[in-house]
Amino acid sequence: MSTKKVERSITPAQCRAARAILDMTQSQLANSAALGLSTIVDFERERRYVSEHAVIAMRRALERAGVEFIRQDGGGAGVRLKRSQLR
Question: Could you tell me the domains of the chain?
């Protein structure tokens, strides 16, 4: 049995919110995640299925840029700046 941590996916809304908090364009996210711009656009607009690999790449890029994703709980899933990013 693998002990590798399983990363949760993010939703298109969380992706858009994270980019907004970071003032990051779709093109910047695509570059940071090493993905095509159309993958970011299609994911955020829910136009087509985007692979889990691509979603994880987006999540990691956004986390490196300074956000953290909040798990689904009583208040719902969300996104916020990491403490170290707050001023």
Answer: 12-85 (1.10.260.40)
Q: What is the spatial distance between Cα 37 and Cα 5, in angstroms, rounded to a whole number?
A: 28
Q: How far is CA 25 from the centre of its chain?
A: 13
Question: Do 14 and 76 contact (CB within 8 A), yes or no?
Answer: no
As a whole number of angstroms, the distance between CA 67 and CA 54 comes to 18
- Tell me, what DSSP letter sits at residue 83? G
The pTM assigned to this predicted structure is 0.84
Tokens of 32: 């940071």
Largest CA distance in the chain: 42
pLDDT of residue 77: 78
The residues pairing with 65 across neighbouring beta strands, listed in sequence order, are: none
Among the listed residues 34, 12, 37, the one whose alpha carbon sits nearest the alpha carbon of residue 25: 37
